[in-house]
Design a protein that fits this description.
There is one protein chain. With about 525 residues, the protein is of the alpha/beta class. The chain is about 30% helix and about 25% strand. Helix 1 crosses helix 8 and helix 10 (about 260-270) packs across helix 11. It is globular, with a radius of gyration of 23 Å. The relative contact order is 0.09. InterPro entries: AMP-bd_C (IPR025110), AMP-bd_C_sf (IPR045851), AMP-binding_CS (IPR020845), AMP-dep_synth/lig_dom (IPR000873), ANL_N_sf (IPR042099), ATP-dep_AMP-bd_enzyme (IPR050237).
Length: about 525
Amino acid sequence: MEFNLADVFETTASAVPDRIALTYEDLNLTYAELDAEANRAGQLFARAGISKDDHVAVFLKNCVEHVTSILGLIKIRAVPINVNYRYTPTELEYIFVNSDSVAVVVELPEHQQVLASLLDGCPLIRTVFVVGDTTDELKRAAEQRSVAVISFADAHDLPSTAEFPERSGDDLYLLYTGGTTGYPKGVMWRHDDFFRKPLSGGNPYGDEPRKDLAEVAAGAKEFPGLSFLIAAPLMHGAALYSLFTFFTLGARVVLRRDFDPKTVVEAVENDKVQVILIVGDGMGLPLVDEMERRKDDADLSSLFSITSGGAIWSTSVRDRMLAVKPDLLLRDNFGASETGNDGAFNVDEDGNLRMPPSPNMILVDERLEPVPPGSDDVGYIARIGNVPLGYYKDEGKTARTFPTRADGTRLSILGDMGRVEADGTIVFLGRGSQCINTGGEKVFAEEVESALHAHPSVSDALVVPVPHERMGQAVAAVIAIYPDAGELTLEAVQEHCRKSLAGYKIPRSIVVVDEVKRTPAGKADYRWAAAQAAQ
């Protein structure tokens, strides 16, 4: 059968209605209660004229309404659009217009203010749903454009059950990328492909995907009532994938308004969190700092795993976490908005990220031909099977990222580079778009960043190329240091890096900043870093 995400969630809610589904701050909702709230949200949207295939921008921080908006929209076969609330007004307008959003869900007054200023440039928006109080500025802007403003609280008066239209595995889920190297792109997933790839077929800890909804229900009943804390904001792909995965399993999802290492550690104590999801070193570094600070007084006994996805998670950060709690299971997931969950990396003694052989992952050259196992050739990591339909309204980038081979096989090629060993193991080198060519030698930014994060004075770092008259490009590092670390010199950085990196990979210049800029999900902002290094 083909799966629809709303059908899957409703199946889980019916299977384990009394199990806690969502913990947000001090509020706990069972699966039955969360399903009821999502039903109310779906009716609110439908009564406002939102229908099948309509796109609705979810311009919210983490909150209960963020979850019920997503669930309510897919229940009525509409398409939720994830919005990075840190974007500039220009970037936000791009998202609203590019996604063809006909409505926006918004909460914070500062977000309402920006939305009010953008309404004239977003002609398709006809409705705004406001969580909390509506600002006067938004009221005036909406009135001038004849845009309806509806209080999200009106959903509370609607029935807890509803009859929704029959759904399909072909329903669309549109997930916008982080846009850290350019404008975001909308990845078009069929619901069935979304279930089978990002959600691992509803069985991420088993061998076989679920065959039907009856197996989904049985799996949820059998799955232990584990608590998963998603540290990333829900507008990030890794967080959305995790949210749906844990809901499919019938697990308890713990959310916080913002990522704050202090509240994450507190949640482990108070909510008996067993698994934490982070996004690479951007979250891992401040989290391990807090774990070290609280290691003698915080009760971390319930925590048995930390999982990362969506960004590089360096060996040094993992080693520090294990020093605090040696029995932790650390899992480094490989994936992207365009591929979903590709499996977990293994880390060898040299710190290399290695992906075990998989039928859904191959290494290809520029002609899309397989790279022979055991060769020293560097190629592109390609994913096959349950590939997205493409990028929304961008045929050119779709053709480049999701090419079709001569045999009809569709690939997803994002620019991740690697080598393939004789047994089929793929060794991950880094993202090609972040590859620095210095005198003909290729340097992957992630490898240098991992080395920098092992320096005791470095709280965060990004690596970018800068122009060099003789070498073409040179390696530059943008570094933030701990407050009590003292001065950090280029010579000290170079001496540290020589312990693990070849000479041509060592930074030739550094820029020390107060804070390394990252997205709310902890992903690198390389455009910002390049501007800093250029100065």
